[in-house]
Specification:
Number of domains: 2
Distance between the termini: 47 Å
Largest sheet: none
Number of helices: 10
CATH topology of the largest domain: Tetracycline Repressor, domain 2
Oligomer: single chain
Radius of gyration: 20 Å
Number of strands: 0
Keywords: DNA-binding
Organism: Trueperella pyogenes
GO molecular function: DNA binding
Pfam family, one: TetR_N
Protein name: TetR/AcrR family transcriptional regulator
């Protein structure tokens, strides 16, 4: 059996434990996850794990938050790089971003979306969609509203519904065209008038 190298306490951070847990979830799923497995992966003792986290649920929650925060950072970058007034281009870029993020987190969500783990997957999608919807409503939509008419009510909930629906759709139909995703988003948000200028490059 391979000897586990234990790092000095000062070198171990909460982030390292979270990353080790995330790696284990992707590699083996939640069913085989244990405090001992996480400690071995992070190169720490069980007592040091409990210094940072009370139980497995708490560290799993921290992993979800880490993944969601990465999504939000990507979205912030997209929002900051948008071309002012180019609604079609923004829709196009957002659709590309969403598909890329879904593909990149596929091993993580696949590990969650199995058996008893499905409840955690639902929580992950719910929290991710709520965070993203809130950010878009408070930033992108406000910018748009300063120069255009908002044609949807309940903005944040509309984005939430669209995001959760598109995640399910893209996972169920991975070959769905980029153009169709853009059209669905535009129709949901009542932005069809901007579609003629939208590109469909892969």
């Amino acid at each position: 059996m391979e000897e586990v190298r234990v790092r000095p306490r000062g070198q171990v951070t909460r982030g390292q434990i979270v990353q080790a847990t995330r790696d284990l979830i992707e590699e083996e799923g939640l069913k085989r996850m244990s405090v001992s497995a996480i400690a071995n992966k992070a190169g720490i003792t069980r007592s040091l794990f409990y210094h940072h986290f009370a139980n497995l649920d708490e560290v799993a929650d921290a992993v979800l938050e880490q993944v969601i925060e990465e999504f939000v950072v990507e979205l912030q970058n997209w929002n900051q790089q948008r071309t002012f007034g180019d609604v079609a281009g923004s829709l196009n870029q957002a659709a590309h971003l969403m598909r890329r993020l879904i593909n990149e987190e596929a091993p993580f969500s696949a590990a969650l979306f199995s058996g008893a783990n499905a409840q955690l997957y639902v929580a992950f999608i719910d929290r991710m969609a709520r965070r993203i919807s809130a950010y878009i409503a408070q930033s992108t939509v406000r910018d748009f509203a300063a120069h255009h008419e908002i044609k949807i009510a309940h903005v944040e909930n509309t984005f939430y519904m669209m995001l959760t629906g598109l995640v399910a759709l893209i996972k169920a139909q991975p070959d769905i065209s980029h153009e169709e995703i853009v059209q669905i988003a535009a129709q949901t948000l009542h932005l069809e008038e901007y579609l003629p200028h939208c590109t469909t490059e892969n």
